[in-house]
Amino acid sequence: MEKIIVKTDGAVSEILIGMKWESAGELIPVSGTAIITDHNVNRIYGERFPDLPVFQVKPGEASKKIEVIESLAERLIESGIDRNGFLLGIGGGVVSDITGFLASIYMRGIKCAYVSSTLLAQVDASTGGKNGVNLGSTKNVLGCFKQPEFVICDPLMLQTLPEEEYLSGLSELIKTAIIGNAKLFEIIENNYEGIMKRDPQLLTMLISMAVNFKASVVSEDEKESGLRRILNFGHTYGHAIELYKSFRHGYAVACGMELSSGFSLARGYITDEEHGRITGLLRRFKLLRPHMIPADLVSQLIMRDKKKSGNDIHFVFIEGIGQAVTEKIPLTEVVKYYLQEKAEN
Ligand code: NAD
Q1: For 239-260, what is each residue's pLDDT tens digit?
Q2: Which of 30, 54, 180, 240 is spaced 20 to 30 A from 289 at the CA atom?
Q3: Substitution candidate for ligand 1 out of 40, 49, 64, 221 with most atoms within 8 A of CB
């Protein structure tokens, strides 16, 4: 088991990787706690949940909306959860975003913790304290920062995850390796079978490396005013592709990383060989899919990136495997590269 501490202004969060998820029951207050989960996770793991009130949401992105938060808050009031209450979210990124958001506003803020049950949540969503819900088709536009007391990442829970969800999470793991840890990239390259078999020991190591990196970035820049921006590698194109093609997030980000790596090559940041290793790895895990966005829509979709400032964006390039850099460039250049790349293919 590995314990990683995330320290931000006034909050300390413990990420417990390789711990049995059932241990959560020993880490939460005995009274005043409620569990938030989704129907799928409840169906598989619910029988082993601690004996506490359980509130379920429908699985999937559609539950990340203010009406769901409102209805959960009403149920917390009915259950007598007061300002000393505690929320334990058991599920993937949707459940942790909902739990964190609800905990940060309910009675002006109560404590929370997560058992992260998807690879995406374990390597990304549950570290960093960001949470958000969607407003119509605009993703994560309502949200705040709330550090959980602890997060349990039990790789054994990943055994029950559908393949598509598992690989979608793997894409974020590969992203972390590309932007921050060349050694992690090499381990992923050399352990295809172990990763596909979901070897718990190997996964504990990979998740720990990813969380360690994210924790170091977040501890330095919790509110994303500088360094934290590098975590958006692949996401400017990825979000546009996700909106247009409705791929799972990780697949869209993988396509975005392929483009961003190509863009880095075109601007002289990386070599052909490095670009080849990145695209080779994404292809090996079958993360790349066709995504021809029509020319008249590319600009419109990329302009919707909420990370832009005016007509510019701090675009994330890589300066070699394991090293990211941001450069403020006009959004028109981002659009131009997409169109040029797709026209060439
Ligand atoms: P998810 O929570 O929708 O889970 C994916 C699917 O897997 C769901 O159907 C769920 O019911 C099921 N599932 C979960 N655990 C399972 C298990 N152990 N066995 C079987 N099925 C299981 O999706 P996700 O990919 O975990 O998270 C995506 C969300 O995370 C997005 O809304 C995204 O915006 C958010 N996110 C947030 C942050 C952040 O910093 N707050 C970062 C990245 C992503």
Answers
A1: 999 989 989 999 999 999 999 9
A2: 180
A3: 40
